[in-house]
Amino acid sequence: MEKYFDINYLWGAIPQLAPFLWITLVVAALAVIFGSLLGLVIAVFKLSKSKILQFLANVYITIMRCTPSVVLLFLVYYGVPAFADYFFGIYLQDVETGVFVVITFSLQFAAMMAEVIRSAYQAIDKGQYEAAVSVGLTPFQAYRRIIFPQAFIVALPNFGNGLIAVLQEGALAYTIGFIDIVGKANLIIANNFNTHAFEIYIALAVFYWILSVAIEKFFGLLEKMFSKGQRSLKTS
Amino acid sequence: MDSSFINIEFLIDTFFVALSGVPIALLVTVVSMAIALPIGFFLALTRINEIPVLNWFTKVYVSFVRGTPVIIQIFVLYSVIPLILTGIFEKYKIDYPIYEINPLWYAFVIFSFNTAAILVEVFRSALKTVNQGQLEAAYSVGLTTAQSYRRIIIPQMLVTAMPNLCTATINLIKATSLGYAISLQEITLKAKVAANVGYNYLEAYIDIFIVYMILCMIVEYLFKLFEKRLSRYKYATA
Predict the structure, then answer these.
(1) Which pLDDT does position A229 carry in this prediction?
(2) CA–CA separation, B18 vs A32, rounded Å?
(3) Is the ipTM of this complex over 0.85?
(4) How close A192 comes to chain B (CA, Å)?
């Protein structure tokens, strides 16, 4: 009788999956870059004095928080080409699925980042800016040299959590036919005639687990490194 | 492809199809929460009190759940539970067709497994905000451990835990959208199946999106009300 659990499938899957880890990571990295930029814009909206801009930012953040990733993914995947085709007559059906994946997770990450940036900015005492300006720095210099380095440390742990979240949500990209590490795992299982799915999924889980723990540890270290100066400043 | 951007008629019809999936989504959410709350709380206690083996077990369990995507947890559990059940059924000579188990049962197990780990962290951080002196004071007036937790610690802890519990609940509702992977008849799957006939996927996903939006807002509102009720003593006596 065949064994239910065969560890050889697990070992066999790891070298097959490893090359596709890069695709997962590249997608996450692109989403982080675009998402952070968009998130910065939304955070500026939210912090602005205009009620309309604040409202827009709040609506955006609420929508993103309430929509499951898989639904957002399909909305972008079907919605963006249909929208572009109907309103602008641009044909987008042949665009790589990866583009839609990056768009989706950038949108989602932006909502997370907007809150992270806002809370980090608000955590810095207003007097810091005033003090900087009063010693003759321009507003831009004050932000760059005084506000940003402090807000950065406050934002760091939340940024790390957001990074892990976007990496994990990215696992859903396979649903629109994107071949990343999860898509490859499903292909391997299909090649095995749907047997020994368990071993392959375990390998997949281990990849994600190691990655998440590594990111968490890395950000913990970064935080320690950057907040060194912070403490000595406080005590002096 | 027809010329119109959105098929309004289909949009409205499918909205009700999507809505008909809400009871299942809510059932899974409520049952999983009901299972996960006590488990999460007791595992959080093992972490706080540093109970030797359980503490370590909880650490690994929480790390695993937080370190892997929900969809992968569904994949893993959905493939391992039948294996375990086959073993058990063969051993005890139970004649039950494993592949006919209602996916609802899998959903309960999978989502409780996931949520319990999230709640461990929620409760752990909330318990830490309650002053140690509260427990000592409760002991010194003669309450037992169970009494002091029920009457002194938990009511205070719940106030701080509420926002995180709300987030956990919303995440759970969102996660039920992944029930399609185990062919659970919830919101996403129902609307998607309706869209299969005429390839109206965009409309179907707009419907699903609206339904989740409504659900999410109702839940947030309810939690806000509940939080207000729980914290009614907090500021009155200060």
Answers:
(1) 64
(2) 32
(3) no
(4) 14
